[in-house]
Specification:
By secondary structure, the chain is an alpha+beta fold. The chain has a single domain (about 1-115), classed as Winged helix-like DNA-binding domain superfamily/Winged helix DNA-binding domain (Arc Repressor Mutant, subunit A, Orthogonal Bundle). The protein has helices spanning about 5-15, 20-30, 35-40, 45-55, 75-105, 110-115, and strands at about 30-35, 60-65, 70-75. Strand 2 and strand 3 form a beta hairpin. Helix 1 runs antiparallel to helix 4 and helix 1 packs across helix 5 (about 75-105).
């Protein structure tokens, strides 16, 4: 089992910001240069680079410099960790709610029969 406390914290922090989520959504369509990503946002290139640094530190994205262009791409492994965690939480809550539904669906007569 993945150590979610350690692995997910930086990833969830990185994608908690709406600007960084927009960047992730753009990168889901394919790699892009830093200037192309920044050009789609109402902020300076420097501010966009700071957001990308947070995403890269959390390993949500990777960047590569070729010549004068820095290209950023999505790291799907990080997002799969979040997806797995969410799926596990969903499964656990569905089980709990199913048990609650079963419990609430029992009539008082059913309980008496169980104890007889």
């Amino acid at each position: 089992m993945l150590d979610y406390q350690t692995a997910l914290g930086p990833i969830l922090h990185a994608i908690a910001d709406p600007t960084r989520r927009v960047m992730v959504e753009q990168l889901a369509k394919g790699p892009a240069s830093v200037s192309a990503l920044a050009g789609r946002l109402p902020m300076s290139l420097q501010a966009a680079m700071q957001h990308l640094a947070v995403l890269e530190a959390a390993e949500v994205v990777r960047s590569e410099k070729i010549g004068r262009v820095r290209t950023v791409s999505l790291n799907p492994t990080a997002l799969r960790q979040v997806e797995r965690w969410v799926a596990e939480q969903k499964t656990a809550w569905e089980r709990r709610l199913d048990r609650l539904g079963d419990y609430l669906g029992e009539s008082p007569d059913d309980e008496r029969k169980d104890h007889d």
